[in-house]
C-alpha cells in the first residue's frame, strides 16, 4: 500500500517548482568535513557528526559573513527529495548569505526518501530514528560554530513539514520556532505496524480536540514545563496529498500547546488568495501563525515564502533577534476573586543574559473577563488577547530582575488567571 501511494506521489512531486538540478550540480562540495569547520559559501556534507540511528546524511551551508553566535535553520526536504534538493529548491542559502545564519539540510537514505514521522521511536524525545540524527546535527553545529542555542529553528515541506512538527514536539527545549508547509499535526501519522504511511491522516479524516492533540505533543517529553516553540503553518485548500483538514488540526494542536485561545487575535490577507490568522499575539512573532492559500494544491511552496518564514523566526535583521529569546522570561500570576470581580498579580522575570529595554506582555484573558483597571502597565484591549505595555518607570528589566504588575477585572464565573504569556512576541515559561 505504501509503495503504491509513493508511486502515486511521484508525478505530483515531479511537477513541483522545487525540482532540483542533477545530483552532480546539487552537491558543490561533497568532501566530508570530519573535523573543524566546513568551507564557507559551499554546501558541504559532514560525516561522523554524532548518534545517527537511521543513517541520515548531513549537509550544512555556512555563509562567508557569519554573525557571532549564529542562528541555525534546519531545512527539511519532501518525500523523494534530498538535502541538496532542498538547498537548490529554496532560498535559505541566499537568505543565510544576507543575514548570517547557518542552514542544516538533513537527507534521508531509506528508499522512500520520506522522513520517519510515524514510528513510536520517532515520536518521543531521544527515542531513536530521524529526530535523534537531526538533533546530533544541531549539536555538532552548535559546538563547531558556538551557535546561539536560543535561536534554533526548523522548517520543512510535505514530509519535511511533518518532521518539523515532530522535531518541535520531541525537542521543545531545542527549537525556538518552526514553519511547516503542507504538513500534518504531531502524532497524526503514527503507526504501529512498521508502515511509513497513514492513509487516514493523509486523507484528513483524523480529528481530535485541541487538548487531545496537545497531549500528544506533551507526551513526547513527559515532565517538560519550559517554553514551547512557536509555530507557523501553511496549507493549500486543494491539497490532494495531505488534505486540507490537517491545516485546522495543526492549529488546534499548537494553540493548545501554547496555551492560547482558538479564536484568532488577528486575520488579514497578505496576498490575494491568502488568509492569515494569528493566535495569542498580533505581531510577526505570534505564538501561532497560520496561512491558508485558496485554490492551491500540495506543492504550495514558492519563492518569497522563505522570507516570510524568517520574519516569523525573527531572523530578517542584522544580528540577533530582539531579546529575550524564547525561554528567557518567566511569568507567575495569581488571582484574588469574589463573586463578580477579581484582582490579578503578575510578576515578570527576565531570565536571559541581556537587559529588556521596552516590553509588551501578551496574554489571553479567560472568557468572560474584562479588565476594568490596572497598575504597572497599560492594558489594551480590555478583553480577549490583552497586551500589557510597560510604563515609563519600569521599561527596563535587567538580567535576573523582575517587575510586578496587576489588574482588576470583572468576570462572569470564570475567575482563572491567564495560563500563557509572551514577552515581545516570544513565549515565556510559566510558574
Describe this protein with a few key phrases.
431 residues, disordered N terminus, ten-stranded mixed β-sheet
Concise synopsis of the structure shown:
With 431 residues, the chain is α/β, with parallel strands linked by helices.
What this model shows, in words?
With 431 residues, the protein is an alpha/beta fold. Helices cover 23% and strands 26% of the residues. It contains ten helices and 22 strands. The protein has helices at residues 2-14, 23-26, 83-89, 92-99, 129-145, 159-170, 199-202, 210-219, 245-258, 305-313; strands at residues 44-46, 57-61, 72-76, 102-107, 152-157, 177-181, 230-236, 266-268, 274-279, 288-293, 329-337, 341-350, 356-357, 360-364, 370-375, 377-380, 385-390, 396-397, 402-410, 421-423, 426-427, 429-430. The chain has a ten-stranded mixed β-sheet with strand order 1-2-4-3-5-6-7-10-9-8, with helices on both faces. Strand 9 and strand 10 (288-293) form a beta hairpin. Helix 8 crosses helix 9. The chain is globular.
Amino acid at each position: 500500500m505504501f509503495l503504491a501511494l509513493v508511486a502515486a506521489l511521484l508525478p505530483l512531486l515531479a511537477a513541483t517548482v522545487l525540482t532540483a538540478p542533477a545530483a552532480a550540480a546539487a552537491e558543490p562540495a561533497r568532501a566530508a568535513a570530519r573535523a573543524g569547520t566546513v568551507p564557507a559559501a559551499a554546501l558541504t556534507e559532514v560525516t561522523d557528526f554524532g548518534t545517527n540511528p537511521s543513517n541520515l546524511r548531513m549537509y550544512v551551508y555556512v555563509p562567508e559573513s557569519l554573525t557571532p553566535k549564529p542562528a541555525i535553520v534546519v531545512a527539511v526536504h519532501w518525500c523523494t527529495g534530498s538535502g541538496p534538493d532542498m538547498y537548490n529548491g529554496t532560498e535559505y542559502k541566499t537568505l543565510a548569505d544576507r543575514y548570517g545564519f547557518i542552514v542544516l539540510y538533513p537527507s534521508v537514505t531509506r528508499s522512500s526518501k520520506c522522513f520517519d514521522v510515524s514510528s513510536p521511536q520517532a515520536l518521543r524525545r531521544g527515542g531513536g530514528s530521524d529526530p535523534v540524527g537531526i538533533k546530533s546535527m544541531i549539536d555538532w553545529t552548535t559546538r563547531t560554530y558556538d551557535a546561539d542555542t536560543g535561536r534554533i529553528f526548523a522548517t520543512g515541506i510535505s514530509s519535511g513539514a511533518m518532521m518539523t512538527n515532530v522535531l518541535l514536539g520531541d525537542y521543545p527545549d531545542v527549537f525556538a520556532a518552526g514553519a511547516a508547509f503542507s504538513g500534518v499535526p504531531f502524532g497524526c501519522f503514527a503507526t504501529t505496524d512498521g508502515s511509513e504511511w497513514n492513509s487516514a491522516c493523509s486523507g484528513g479524516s483524523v480529528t481530535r480536540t485541541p487538548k487531545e492533540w496537545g497531549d500528544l505533543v506533551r507526551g513526547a517529553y513527559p515532565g517538560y514545563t519550559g517554553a514551547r516553540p512557536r509555530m507557523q503553518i501553511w496549507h493549500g485548500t486543494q491539497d490532494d496529498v495531505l488534505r486540507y483538514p490537517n491545516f485546522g488540526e495543526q492549529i488546534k494542536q499548537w494553540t493548545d500547546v501554547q496555551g492560547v485561545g482558538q479564536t484568532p487575535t488577528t486575520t488579514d490577507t497578505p496576498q490575494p488568495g491568502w488568509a492569515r490568522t494569528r493566535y495569542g499575539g498580533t505581531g510577526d512573532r505570534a505564538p501561532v501563525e497560520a496561512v491558508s492559500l485558496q485554490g492551491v494544491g500540495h506543492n504550495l511552496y514558492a519563492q518569497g515564502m522563505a522570507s516570510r518564514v524568517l520574519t516569523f523566526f525573527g531572523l530578517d535583521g542584522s544580528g540577533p533577534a530582539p531579546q529575550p529569546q524564547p525561554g528567557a522570561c518567566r511569568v507567575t500570576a495569581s488571582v484574588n476573586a469574589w463573586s463578580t470581580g477579581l484582582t490579578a498579580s503578575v510578576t515578570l522575570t527576565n531570565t536571559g543574559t541581556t537587559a529588556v529595554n521596552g516590553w509588551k506582555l501578551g496574554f489571553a484573558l479567560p472568557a468572560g473577563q474584562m479588565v476594568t483597571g490596572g497598575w504597572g502597565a497599560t492594558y489594551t484591549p480590555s478583553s480577549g488577547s490583552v497586551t500589557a505595555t510597560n510604563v515609563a518607570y519600569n521599561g527596563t528589566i535587567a538580567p535576573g530582575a523582575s517587575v510586578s504588575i496587576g489588574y482588576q477585572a470583572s468576570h462572569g464565573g470564570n475567575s482563572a488567571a491567564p495560563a500563557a504569556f509572551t514577552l515581545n512576541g516570544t513565549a515565556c515559561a510559566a510558574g
